[in-house]
From TrEMBL:
SUPFAM superfamilies: PH domain-like. The keyword Cell membrane applies. Pfam families: PH. The keyword Repeat applies. It is found in: Cell membrane; Cytoplasm; Nucleus. InterPro entries: PH-like_dom_sf, PH_domain, PI-Interact_SigTrans_Reg. GO terms for cellular component: cytoplasm; nucleus; plasma membrane. The gene is plekha1b. It comes from Denticeps clupeoides (denticle herring). PANTHER family: PLECKSTRIN HOMOLOGY DOMAIN-CONTAINING FAMILY A MEMBER 1, TANDEM PH DOMAIN CONTAINING PROTEIN. This is PH domain-containing protein. GO terms for molecular function: lipid binding. Residues 156-181 are annotated as: Disordered.
Length: 330
């Protein structure tokens, strides 16, 4: 059975088919380390091996998309389960049925990504000296990351050539100096922005990215401080944005998909509200980009996306009341 060691890692023995489709399972000692984000296996318990013994194999948790029972896929392999990792499937054998269930559960739990919320991880504080042109004394400034936004504040006073306080370089205590993150196009107005987790196109691993939506497209960056986007998805290429029906298969909460002309993007947000917010924002931006040639039904759909409380008129026909869209709204 898997157990927790002194380093709070899940450990235990399993048989693994190291060579894919070979049908030959070998006994290995597995360590699931959620802090390092990896699953590794050794010939034996490292405590029984010489110091510095190397791992036989390893797998990053971000590459794992699903772990499930594989008794139907490998009927001859008793208590078998499979780890889907990108283009590769790893088949393993547990000691018994309970061992199988517990390993599948802990692996799925460990690979289930949740986007960190602002403030969950302490950010480093760096002090750097900045000096104004013509000044005779440096002023020390402190840079902090608060809510994902870099903020620079002065840590000491400085004097210029005339001995005057260099207030032009410092902001009042309640008005910090913000460094705005440049986007790929400064002329575009950002409609929505924030961190999400996106599935890769080739390796199918999941990585945290910073997304911005403007009137022309959806862009994502490595971080909110990057100048250039890793990719820009034009709105004209997005066919629809909707909640992903395969979220149970991918073991991802708050998952939605962008269906484009060339690819389907799978994106995970940090809450159901944020997921629905992205879907509505992207859908509304798509509708808004279509311009004045939209049909009446498309116009009504756009209004519902931006404001679900649409006014309606009541037409009485005999004893019945029928609600129809106001002609003023179409």
């Amino acid at each position: 059975m898997p157990y927790v060691d002194r380093l709070n890692r899940i450990c235990g023995f399993l048989d693994i088919e190291e060579n894919e489709n070979s049908g030959k399972f070998l006994r290995r000692y597995f360590i699931l380390d959620t802090v390092k984000g990896s699953l590794v296996w050794y010939m034996d318990n490292p405590q029984n091996l010489p110091k510095g013994a190397e791992v036989i194999g390893s797998l990053k948790l971000t590459y794992i998309s699903k772990v499930s029972d594989a008794t139907k896929l490998r009927p001859k392999a008793e208590f078998c389960f499979v780890i889907n990792a990108g283009m590769r499937k790893f088949f393993l054998q547990a000691n018994d049925q309970q061992d199988l269930v517990e390993w599948v559960s802990v692996l799925n739990k460990a690979t289930k990504i949740t986007v960190p919320k602002p403030g969950d991880v302490p950010q480093p504080c760096v002090e750097s000296p900045l000096e104004a042109p013509g000044a005779t004394k440096q002023v020390s400034y402190k840079t902090e990351i608060i809510g994902g936004v870099p903020i620079v504040t002065a840590t000491q006073k400085g004097e210029g050539q005339n001995g005057a306080d260099r207030g032009g370089l410092r902001k009042p205590p309640n008005q910090p100096y913000y460094i705005n993150r440049p986007t790929y196009n400064q002329d575009q107005t950002v409609v929505k922005a924030g961190y999400c987790v996106k599935q890769g196109a080739v390796m199918k691993n999941w990585k945290r990215r910073y997304f911005t939506l403007d009137e022309n497209g959806l862009s994502y960056f490595k971080s909110e401080l990057d100048r250039e986007a890793l990719r820009v998805i034009p709105l004209k290429e997005i066919q629809k944005a909707q909640e992903c029906k395969q979220s149970d298969l991918m073991m991802r909460d708050n998952l939605f998909e962008l269906v484009t002309t060339s690819r389907t993007f799978y994106i995970q947000s940090d809450s159901p509200e944020d997921m629905h917010g992205w879907i509505k924002a992207i859908s509304g931006a798509i509708v808004a980009q279509r311009g004045p040639g939209r049909s009446g039904s498309t116009m009504r759909q756009a209004r519902r996306l931006s404001n679900p409380c649409i006014q309606r008129y009541t037409l009485r026909t005999g004893e019945c009341c029928t609600y129809v869209d106001s002609p003023l709204l179409t």
